[in-house]
Amino acid sequence: MGLTETLADYFDLDSHDTTVRTELLAGLTTFLTMSYIVVVNPAILAAAIDIEGVGQGRLVAMLAVVTIISAATATLVMALYANRPFAQAPGLGLNAFFAFTVVLGMGVPWQTALAAVVVEGIIFIALTAVGAREYVIRLFPEPVKLAVGSGIGLFLALIGFESMRVVASDPATFLTLSPVVANDPVALISVAGLLFTFGLYARGIRGSIVIGILGTTVAGYVAAALGYTAYNPENVPGGAAIATNIFLTGSTTTYSLAAYDIRPLAGAFLEGFANVDAFTFALIVFTFFFVDFFDTAGTLVGVGQSAGFLDDEGNLPDIDKPLMADAVGTTVGGMLGTSTVTTYIESATGVEEGGRTGLTALTVAGLFLLSLLFVPLAAAIPEYASHIALVVIGVVMLGNAVEVAWDDLTYAIPAGMTIMVMPFTFSIAYGIAAGIVSYPVVKLAAGELDDIHVGQWILAGAFVVYFAVRTSGVM
C-alpha cells in the first residue's frame, strides 16, 4: 500500500468525499492564512517578557520558535486524535490580554501569567475528559449556533480589510475607508489581489485562494523591487489613523541559531507559582478560561457549519476531541512560554478549499514544523496578501445566516446580536455572549418558557457576571 492509500485509509477520506490532493491543498491554504502568527505573536509577547541576558532580537526569535512548536503540537493532536481540519496556534486577543493587561497593566510577572495559562489548560483537559465542555456547548441556543458562522465571517472580513489597509480607525465614526488608499501601494495591490481571487473563486477554480495569495505576494515583491513601499502618513493630515512601517516585503527580522535555544522560556511558568496572590491569579485564570472556551467553541461550531459537520440540532459530533486538542495545546504552549493556544478561524479557508479531515490539520502541523528550518522566512508571505483569504471566506460564511428562522423574533434577536457584536467588539466570545444572554430574555418575554433550558439561564447569568467583572475596573 502506497503513501497516498495509507493516508486515505487512516483519515477515512472516502467517507468524507475528499482526496489526498484536496486535503493537502486545504492545509496549505490554512497555513498561508495563519502563518502571520509566527511574527505577530512574538511581537506582542516580547513587549511584556524580559529575560536577563537575552536581547530583544533573540527574544523575538525564541518566541517565534515557541509559537511554531505549540501550534504544531496542538494541530497535530487535532489531526491524529480528532481527525478534523481545524488548525491551532496561540490566539490573537489572548496574547494581547496576556501582555498588555495582565503583565504590563496589572504588574503581574510574566512567569505568573504563563502559570495561569498552564492552569487553564489543565482545567480544560479535566473538563473535556468528563464531557463538561461539550455539555456547555450543547446548551448554546439553536439561533446562536446557526449565527456563529456569519458572525465569524464578518469578523474575518474586518481583520482582512484592516490588514489590507483598506479600512482605518476614525475618531468620529470609529471605522472608515482609509483616506489614502489611492496613494498606498499595499492597499492597491491588496484590492487588486482580492478582485483577482474573487474572479478565480467565481469561476470555480480549485486552489483559487492559494493562487490569489501567491499572486498578490509576487506582485508585492515586484513592487518592492521597483522601489515602492507602503504609504507613510507621517506629517500628512489625518494620516495617524493608518498603520506605518509596513513594507511590501513583510518582516525584516533576522535570526541566529541562538533562537532555537528556548530554555529561558520553557519551564518559566514554574517560577510563576511563587508568591502568587490567590484572588488576582484566579481572576486571570478565569479570564483566560472564559475567552478561550467560547472563542474555541464558536470557531468549532462556525467552521463546522461551513464544512457541513453539524447535525440536525446544530451540534458538532464528537466535539470533545477537537476540544481536547485545544486543551493540550494550551497546556503545552504555556509550559513552553507562550500564551493560550486556540482554534483558528482561519481554518475556514482550508474548509472552503475542500478540507474535511485531519489530513488538512496534519498538513498545517507539518508546514509549521518545516518553517522551523526557515524561521526568518515564516513571514515571507506578507500579511496583507494572506489576509485576502479572510475577506473571501468572510463573504462565503455570510451564507450561513440563511438557516436562521428570521421570521421568528425569538430566533432573529439572539442570532442578530451574535452576528453584529462579533465584529463590533472584535471578539467571537462577546458575540456568543450577546446571543446567549438575549435568548432567554426574549423567550421569556414571548411567553415561551418551555423552550428555555435551566442551563441556558445559568450560562446567561455567567456571562453577565463576566461582563460585570471585565467592565467594572476589577481587571
From TrEMBL:
It comes from Halolamina pelagica. The keyword Secreted does not apply. It holds the Pfam family Xan_ur_permease. This is Putative MFS transporter, AGZA family, xanthine/uracil permease. It is found in: Cell membrane. GO terms for molecular function: purine nucleobase transmembrane transporter activity. GO terms for cellular component: plasma membrane. InterPro entries: Azg-like (IPR045018), Azg-like_bact_archaea (IPR026033), NCS2 (IPR006043). It is a multi-pass membrane protein. Keywords: Cell membrane, Membrane, Transmembrane, Transmembrane helix, Transport. Belongs to the nucleobase:cation symporter-2 (NCS2) (TC 2.A.40) family. Azg-like subfamily. The chain crosses the membrane at residues 24-49, 61-82, 89-107, 113-132, 181-202, 209-228, 240-260, 323-345, 357-381, 387-406, 418-440, 452-469. The keyword Ion transport does not apply.
